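FORM 7B - TANDEM STRUCTURE REPORT

SECTION 1: FIRST PROTEIN
SEQUENCE AND TOKENS:
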Amino acid sequence: MSWTQTARNFTEQLQQLSDELEIEKLAKKIIEQIYELTEASKRKRALATVSKEIRRIYPNDEIPHPLYFEHTEAKDGKPPIYKHIIFKTLTLTTSDWDELATDGSREEWFKQQQKNTEVIEQPSLDSMTINQLNLDSFTQQTLEQALEHSGMPLDEFIKQAISVYAKTITGKARKHSEDLSNVPTAELLDDAKWTTHPGRASELTKRAIRAIKFYNANRVGENADRWCITQSAIASLTGSRQSTIKKILERYKDDIENHNQRYGLNGYSNRKPGKDISEEIDMAELIPNGVD
């Protein structure tokens, strides 16, 4: 059979994979096919053909890449060599190397196999030192000062820090999913307890859009008195940052454009000497809550 074409087929399959387990399965499939279809004396050549084709797409390199591993370490001024992870598995068995290798390559392979299967002992939390955390100098100094002030051992401090941060994250996640539609608009605007709520800006933006649309349709009859729905107009009504509002408005882009076009409104429409949209449009009155 032609191992050149087979090698190309395997390489095409490899290019579709990004999961290490799937890559390992493919390597084992290649080895199995070599063993099934090739006699012992020709297995090394068959494997070399497949490996050459793979390296044509995934060449060995001196810098790391996704799905590469460090094959040889930097030594004597020479850089490390990185290979695609398929080569962790894509290799002959010990008996095949014993039979075929006569140039020292067997020993090199054996050393690499030992390295690949070496289990690195991980430090336990109660024996961990600050240096093992690999912190930048500023963070390490801050941690050392905090430990000194707290009087806590490192492991206990880490546990406490994890607990506090985990509660913060889960608390924010819970707030993100909280429905604010029943919170009165006046309260959402003025009550300090809602100021830092992650959903406040989004909810107020939605209500501000509704308020402007209602005002334009029901409270005034002339275009000169209508307000264009813009980022700055929403910011004036809600008190939220324009950078935050800009992202939120993307969700309502079509609705806003349709409304502004219906009345022929644009940015110049909001240039009303002596008038301020926040004084003309009372959000709390027009849209008392977020219930549609």
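SECTION 2: SECOND PROTEIN
SEQUENCE AND TOKENS:
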Amino acid sequence: VFTRQRFPMDWASAQNNLGSIYQTLGQRARDAAKLEQSASAFRATRQVYVRRKFPRDWAMSHYNLGNTLQLLGGVTDKPEHYGEAIAAYRDALREYNRETNPRQWALAQAGLGSTLHWLSMSNADSRTLLESIAARRAALEVLTVDAAPVDWANAQNGIGMSLLNLGNLERTGKYLGDAEAAFTATLKVFSREGLPMQWAFAQNNLGDVSWNRASYGGGKAEYQKAIEFFENAKQGFTEAGYTIPIPLTDQKIDLVKKQMAKK
């Protein structure tokens, strides 16, 4: 039996493995209790992985904890978990740096950016969104389309979402061009044939850009583009066998058509 007193490194490794298992189970089932168990296990590893002796293991435990707490925030809809996740990622980044741990540094930046975005949904704070965008752009310095295509595309998508939300908060269309560029970039990876669900979400997001642009005086052409993107999204969701977003997409199409008819 691996006890912390007799076999501290083995005990910490077992706790880390437990944390990963509970994280996977909690994510799949959206089970808050499993995610709480995951967080407890990752916290336990820090009884052994102290920064002075085991800096990389210490950073890893904080990164893993950040991932679990971000998931827990989404499952429970409690913003305090996002705050704890942000602190965990920032602790990891105290040890991870771009020069010596480039991939882990980039993944921690991406996790930080994602969590800041979700926190902004609760606090409606422009500064939080700007921090999210900055963290994800930092991640893209390492997570290139050639080296890590899916991570790169996810970061681009996150940047686009934060830019859209930032424009909505500030009631301006000045971020739409950059948001459109970010969503369009994801299509280099999210192809309709290979990843139809991700392609569909990209089409949906591009539809939101055109719809917003139309609202800021873009004219009927932008409304029509929005409808086309939303129709593409519906087709992609159908092809992916993921029908949950389709009713909402239909509602968007109806609203766009009504707004266009008034112009």
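SECTION 3: OBSERVATIONS ON SECOND PROTEIN
The chain is about 80% helix and 0% strand.
The mean pLDDT is 96.

SECTION 4: SIGNATURE
Preparer initials: ____
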